[in-house]
# Entry
Amino acid sequence: MTRDVYYIIKPILPRSLQLFLRRVRALWILRHHQSVWPILKSSGKSPVNWSGWPEGKMFSLVLTHDVESAKGLGKCERLMEIEKRYGFRSSFNFVPEGYPVPEEFRKKVEKQGFEVGIHGLTHKGNLFRSRNTFLAKAKRINEYMENWGCVGFRAPSMFHNLEWTHELNVEYDLSTFDTDPFEPQPDGVGTIFPFFVHDSHPVKGYVELPYTLPQDSTLFLLLRNQNIGTWIKKLDWVADKGGMVLVNVHPDYINFDGKPETVDEYPVKFYTDFLEYLSSKYAGQYWHVLPREMARFWRNSLSS
# Structure
């Protein structure tokens, strides 16, 4: 089954069948891409004229969340409480025309020191399938960006076109990765550092923040990993290279209650184990910021 055919018939497939087909594909990919995933060795090269992270930190840390549905929206507050307990903060990217995202809730997220971003317009299809369709949707996305006071964007399913993204009024984009052959558009950017995407005007553009740890959905839903070993392996490697540890975790898929997981959930312990590992092994060694803070640092420091 080709990727395009799958995405055409996906809406009519039961969720359990969708996951079965994706798992079969993921296991095939895993067998054939172990030399470039989860670690692509060439992506550890530092940028030209790189002088290091603020405060002399060993590496940087950015936590992000894509909220795909109303179910995920209902889990955000519990996720924030866990992160606050460990001293972390993160961004939550919402789908503005996928489910209601009340203004009061967005303000509550921001008041607690977290960030709100935009995750597509809806969560269906490829935003970049045609130029005309993209431009029409970009206009509406920009309206939400202004109304919500957002500066960051991530496309659903990590589809991306870095040239077209200039049409969005963003300071940063999160739609790429250093290496991830499991994604429907698997062309990685090959770096564990942010980078500036220039527009035709020399001072315009935006900062691209690729995720550098595998997504939770890949590890725990598709590959059915029963521990965070892969996260730890990649985290340690990125930290050793002095890069940016950026992870994307979906509240939709987290089971907080200790009940038997459904086909599209995993236990919250996986994420708390990750935060515990970070905060214990690397205490005081990482520069932890929100995506907008990372983007502004990078623009001011290395955009030329």
The chain is about 35% helix and 15% strand. The chain has a mean pLDDT of 93. The longest helix spans residues 15-32.
